[in-house]
Amino acid sequence: MGATKHNWTKDEILEIYNKPLMELLYQAATVHREQHDPNTVQVSTLLSIKTGGCSEDCGYCPQAARYHTNIEGNDLMSVQQVKAQALRAKESGSSRVCMGAAWRNVKDGEEFDQVLEMVRTINKLDMEVCCTLGMLTENQAKRLAEAGLYAYNHNLDSSEEYYKEVISTRGFEDRLQTIDNVRKTNVTVCSGGIIGMGEKVEDRAGMLVALSTLNPQPESVPINALVAVEGTPLEDQEPVSIWDMVRMVATTRIVMPETQVRLSAGRTQMTQEGQAMCFFAGANSIFAGDKLLTTPNPDVNEDMKMFDLLGLNPQKPFTKKVQPQTVEATDSQYQDLGEKPKWSRPGHTIERNEAAKEKAKADK
Ligand code: SF4
Q: Is 278 known to be catalytic?
């Protein structure tokens, strides 16, 4: 078992990505077997606890308020609603619940306190709890950790260069800063990206450089295939080919051997054979549930049938790391600091984002 390498270069990663496919699959599957049980796949459930109305301009996202995408928005869910859904997820084989809120960044106050209570509640159900809430200060990360958070998701989305072609309302360095804030706690890091947004293969490699040179590397890396939603700036993107997905998963596995590689959005466009190839290439996690935040996802029963067919077993919770302790709000050693951090707002113009915004205005 080789030591994890933290100084990957773009050229080295491109060389791996572009190998003859059988070579690439063999190498990735070998690395996978050295570090993980190849027949175990984690099942996570993604819950949208606050949907739509987001102030950001992410070109792929139907939840951005400025685009016209017909999604049904909702305010922050109650703790009881979240608990009921987490219990349902647990019964159907999920070991992790990931709660997503369409926020630019976390704001101290009542809503964040409610999210902290959700974290406490799910951790007490003996499930791994993950949150994706936008940018985060160090104090907020510590409060989440104290509540019992297992993982924080904050995707880099693409390479630093291509990020500027997709999002203008925040900078790549803010993403890295949030990951750094999470790393000051014992919460694990989940960070990955999306392929099929019109980026070059070099951008895919660039994203993997940014992730694999973090030390430690993220414990979890989701690889998403763009689901092009009508009304978003990326609505006309062609679906990414399964071969690109397999290559991306395999390369991720090789450069981040210990990481849990997640086959995330875009599974509805993949056949079972395609997904099986991704598992062989080193993917060892999926998201379950009929929706991934707002986009369609395979039915959980179909997933369980696929697991039976392929002889896969759902991973038990806390297999990779012990369960965090939950500290009650009344015993917390951290306070609501009412912070107002200055996250960047580059505000450069992305033509397709502007066009989608104008079209949404005209449609109103
Ligand atoms: S990806 Fe997140 S931050 Fe970007 S628009 Fe969607 S909800 Fe907002």
A: no
Distances, alpha carbon 96 to alpha carbons 76, 93, 121, 350, in Å: 20, 9, 13, 36
Q: Which of 288, 278, 219 is nearest to 21 (CA)?
A: 278
**Residue 289 burial by Cβ neighbours in a 10 Å radius (0-12, 13-18, 19+):** buried
pTM beyond 0.90? yes
**Which one, of 258, 259, 208, lies nearest residue 17 by Cα?**
208
Cβ atoms of residues 167 and 238 within 8 Å = no
Known active-site residue 130: yes
Ligand 1 centre and the CA of 294: distance in Å? Answer: 11
Whether the CB of 61 sits within 6 Å of ligand 1: yes
* Ligand 1 center–CA 103 separation, angstroms: 7
pLDDT tens, position by position, 11-43: 999 999 999 999 999 999 999 999 999 999 999
Mean pLDDT of 112-119: 97
